[in-house]
């Protein structure tokens, strides 16, 4: 268990470093959440030969997200750290094409510890997380983008249902094309441009 904990937290730490490198170049983004390192130590004389060691975090400990993805508390939604944690989750989700999600984000201020990772059932690039892949689906359904998601240019997770509706609407226009040519012609063009812009 200790080795898995180290593996998960240090993998999340690497994603957080890459997220920080991208976010810190943006004007006005400010401080970025950091996943603190965790170390595995071997104690051969002890009954439990392996243990983990990490920096002690002093201050108010806050859970910005929980493993099942359902908890949305005020500190997560309204605080800068909470919003940036949600953006971090969204960034990782997008960078891994929806195959991996860093979850169970908690800590003091911008310093996070004891995080979890959910991957699809087969894992992602040889890595398997310690959380159910259903958390990825729950995140996709519950995540609400904030100003930091917009600053990073992350795609809205609400976009696919809109595309389906527009695709269905364009299918229904084909049979009525002769009668629609007089009046709704310009509207068709506008809807098509909206559809294209939502993909970019």
TrEMBL record:
Skewed-composition ranges (Polar residues): 169-179
Compartments, as annotated in UniProt: Basolateral cell membrane
Boundaries of every Alpha-type protein kinase domain copy: 1-157
Compositionally biased residues, Basic and acidic residues: 191-200
Location of the region described as Disordered in the Swiss-Prot/TrEMBL record: 159-200
Reaction(s) catalysed by this chain's protein: L-threonyl-[protein] + ATP = O-phospho-L-threonyl-[protein] + ADP + H(+); L-seryl-[protein] + ATP = O-phospho-L-seryl-[protein] + ADP + H(+)
Protein name: Alpha-protein kinase 2
UniProt source species: Mionectes macconnelli (McConnell's flycatcher)
Organism lineage: Eukaryota, Metazoa, Chordata, Craniata, Vertebrata
């Amino acid at each position: 268990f200790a080795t898995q904990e180290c593996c998960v937290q240090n993998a999340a730490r690497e994603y957080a470093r890459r997220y920080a490198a991208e976010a810190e170049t943006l004007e006005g983004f400010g401080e970025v959440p950091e996943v603190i390192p965790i170390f595995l130590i071997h104690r051969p004389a002890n009954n439990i030969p392996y243990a983990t060691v990490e920096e002690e975090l002093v201050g108010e400990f806050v859970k910005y997200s929980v493993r099942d993805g359902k908890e949305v508390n005020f500190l997560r939604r309204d605080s800068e750290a909470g919003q940036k944690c949600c953006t971090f989750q969204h960034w990782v989700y997008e960078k891994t094409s929806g195959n991996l999600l860093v979850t169970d984000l908690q800590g003091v201020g911008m310093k996070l510890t004891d995080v979890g990772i959910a991957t699809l059932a087969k894992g992602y690039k040889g890595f398997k997380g310690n959380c159910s892949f259903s958390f990825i689906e729950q995140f996709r359904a519950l995540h609400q983008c904030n100003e930091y998601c917009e600053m990073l240019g992350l795609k809205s997770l609400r976009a696919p249902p809109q595309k389906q509706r527009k695709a269905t609407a364009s299918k229904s226009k084909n049979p009525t094309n002769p009668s629609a040519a007089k009046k709704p012609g310009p509207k068709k063009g506008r809807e098509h441009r909206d559809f294209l812009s939502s993909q970019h």
